[in-house]
Amino acid sequence: MLEHKVVKVHLKNTFRTAHGAADVKHQVIVNIEGGLGEAAPVAYYGESIDTISDFVEKAADLIGDDVFKLEDIIDRLNHFRAYNTAAKAAIDIALHDAVGTKLNIPVYKMLGITAREDIPTSYTISISDPDDMKRQTEENPGYEIYKIKVGVPGDIDMVAAVREATDARIRVDANAGWTLKEAVQKIKHLERYDIEFVEQPLHWHDYEGFRILRSKSNLPIIADEGIMDAGSIALYNDKVDGINIKLQKSGGIREGFKMIAVARALKMQIMIGCMVETSVGISAAAQLAPLVDYIDLDGNLLIDDDPYDGVRAENGYLKYPDRPGIGVVEKG
Ligand SMILES: [Mg+2]
To answer: Which of 16, 187, 244, 326 could potentially form a cystine with 224 if both were Cys, beta carbons 3.0 to 4.6 Å apart?
Structure first.
């Protein structure tokens, strides 16, 4: 039995990246036998509330009556339609939550993972004028890591402004906003601001650009937008230092877990990230977080009216609730 609903959430600050801006987000929440999952539509991957709703309505018949048959169900979803990874993620997460809840254990335990609460997560400063970005940083103190969205004109000044407001670690994400030439120059400038790494400097299919950039950059390069599933990781072998896994791109926890194995085999660093997601999506990603090098799970912190309570960053560290499944409950 699969039910779904659309949830509207408001963002604390207008969320701006090189891809666009938003104040309000609509998410699809899926419920399978009490297990919850979330789809966060991303327009540049071709998904919307309509495509996700259509997918989950039609996929309901493919779930069957045994949520433990995760591998078979996900196979059926992949054969039913390619792509649609956010819709698939919602179903995959709901299935994991349902299985964990039936077994009365958290999903990370189901997967043989030890929960760790000592890896800091970053807080994202969205694109604005430098003064406002400095203010955003000052109004959200105490994080060990800030992530700055760049990839737009004037971005080096924005990084400088945030650096004035904090001594914490800073990582930047250009969201495919630079050309190779710009990236080489900007990264040279960024080196003076003590930057941890640069995420997605180039267009996601510019594999040769990544190879050249990596040879010219003193900062580590992390690929995000072009990293979808396990198969996509090999395309970036020797061209980047690491990858960013997001459940909304991978189609859920199961593929995300496989991606970690592939990336480790290729000696890549691993980051786990998110879209703007409620505590449903964030808590699901947090189940895999103890296995990675960099955590960027602040999507629920950017939302003013998150309808759910689950894994949450407190003072920059993930706190796992003592509940089975992905540990999420609807707020009362
Ligand atoms: Mg990114």
So the answer is: 244
